[in-house]
Design brief:
homodimer, alpha/beta, 6-stranded mixed β-sheet, 11 helices, 6 strands, CobH/CbiC_sf (chains A, B), precorrin-8X methylmutase activity (chains A, B), Precorrin-8X methylmutase (chains A, B), Cbl_synth_CobH/CbiC (chains A, B), cobalamin biosynthesis (chains A, B)
């Protein structure tokens, strides 16, 4: 089987297992791609979408939105060729020297400072957070103080400390969001959700 | 909380949830780190370890073993600073032009050809496969034909087509292995298992 055939058959199997589960057709490609990357069917029920978020995100990508991730892993997993075909790029500043220096000086996390640096980019921005609740909380703060107005926030940090809370709080912010309720998420899920939106934006099958 | 404190508290919470679950103490750091990266407690029961694999893997890392991954995502997730402190490096050849060219010529996957290229490296090797069952099947073939003798195979591809079978077959090969039985796994899990072994090799807490 060729890679595309394997992917097609995988999605057919996911459909079969999902069976009669009720899923909004616009959310389905994102939910299925999260399941495809984790084999974890919890993503059929834990992903939360703000109103019209998928249509808006697709439009933003078509308009050349750039994507900001909180980890190199999420950046590595995003289909940069498809994103570039729409005029976008992926940015991740967490490993930058100036970010590490400022985080140390200000006694905060590199993840939070990396978001501040990203907020200075002059592009429409999609944030994809798969790891750091502090990144998500920094995005919330910048939105609420009028310093950032993202096209979309993908809030899927994974873990045990402040993770559930950061996601609940993000869903209270007036911004288009896709959030995985509960502890689950990760860089792989963040990348998968970005890729699902990218493939919808370029009308790629699956 | 500082990042290290967050990690410590996360592992405490994982311990609390695992409760009385019986886990081999040598396997525990790997299982917990897989749970830490996914918040998925299935990894408490689906990870399978060949005899003495953890002791052997730690020794291999201390001897300067290099790690080969099947995806850039897994490579991105591995702690390369800790690996370098032991004399190792991470390699991933899947995006190389010569690999793409040969895969096309031979009508096979880039993942399989990337493993053939890695097998020519003159280092003790640990393979960490989080995505491609064809990579795992190529490793099996090279071992069985005497062309490869890895220190360890981490076999945690995720998915629906040939994934379960490839992992079952890997566990029949005469090689030290760590395998996630069933459909689950991923690049994040592959990286987490490598990092757990690295931290054991340098006696890092948690």
């Amino acid at each position: 089987m060729l890679p595309f055939e394997i992917e097609k058959e995988s999605f057919r199997m996911i459909d079969e297992i999902l069976g009669e589960t009720t899923i909004n057709p616009l959310h389905a490609p994102l939910i299925k791609r999260a399941i495809h990357t984790s084999a974890d069917f919890d993503y059929a029920t834990n992903l939360c979408f703000s109103d019209h978020v998928v249509e808006r995100a697709i439009q933003a990508l078509k308009n050349g939105a750039h994507i900001v991730t909180d980890t190199q892993m999420a950046k590595a997993g995003i289909n940069k060729t498809t994103l570039a075909s729409l005029g976008g790029e992926v940015h991740c500043f967490v490993a930058d020297e100036d970010v590490a220096k400022r985080a140390k000086e200000e006694g905060t996390t590199r993840s939070a400072i990396a978001i501040e640096k990203a907020a200075e980019l002059n592009y429409p921005l999609i944030f994809a957070v798969g790891n750091a609740p502090t990144a998500l909380m920094k995005i919330k703060e910048l939105i609420e103080t009028g310093k950032l107005s993202p096209e979309l926030v993908i809030g899927v940090p994974v873990g045990f400390v402040n993770v559930v809370e950061s996601k609940e709080q993000m869903m209270q912010v007036n911004v288009p969001y896709i959030v995985a309720k509960g502890r689950k998420g990760g860089s792989n899920i963040a990348a998968a959700l970005c890729n699902a939106l990218l493939y919808m934006a370029v009308n790629r099958q699956i």
